[in-house]
Amino acid sequence: MYKELIKLIKKIKSIVFNACFIKFSHIFVIKESKFKKIKLISYKVKFFQNIGQSTLEFVLIFPLVIIAVLIIAQLGYIVYIQNILNFAASQGARKLSTTNSNEMVYDLIYTNCPSLCKEKLNIKINPFSEEQRKVGSYANISIEYDYDNSFLNFLELIFNKEVTLKSSCIVRMESEV
Fold it and tell me: The pTM is what?
């Protein structure tokens, strides 16, 4: 009888494993009686009951994860642009303090910002006139950049206004010529 029971269990296993949408998890409770006979008390085959739940969770959460990743990428790009502007302003101020030439400062700032749109850069030198800048006086260079990324402009959608990045640097003049 025990051998027949094992054959029956193997047959049921093969039938269940061959079915595509059935998960086979079985519980055998075998009890020995006084007469050394084995009785099969329970046998359980569990079908997929929650197959759609994980798919639904994935469909609901995946767009939110993608949006979060894109917002983080956009913030990283804005920090990158701010670093470029800070470097360009400090290099422009250094060039201004040693050469006192507006044209050289503009060329240097445009050279240090190759990936930025030149039309969106607003460079201000204060005092603007080369004659007003004397040795020992202070000069200020400020750069503004209108960030407008039409593909990933989540910040404009969230805050409902344009993002303008600013950087400035103040230096003491070292030469008049």
Answer: 0.64
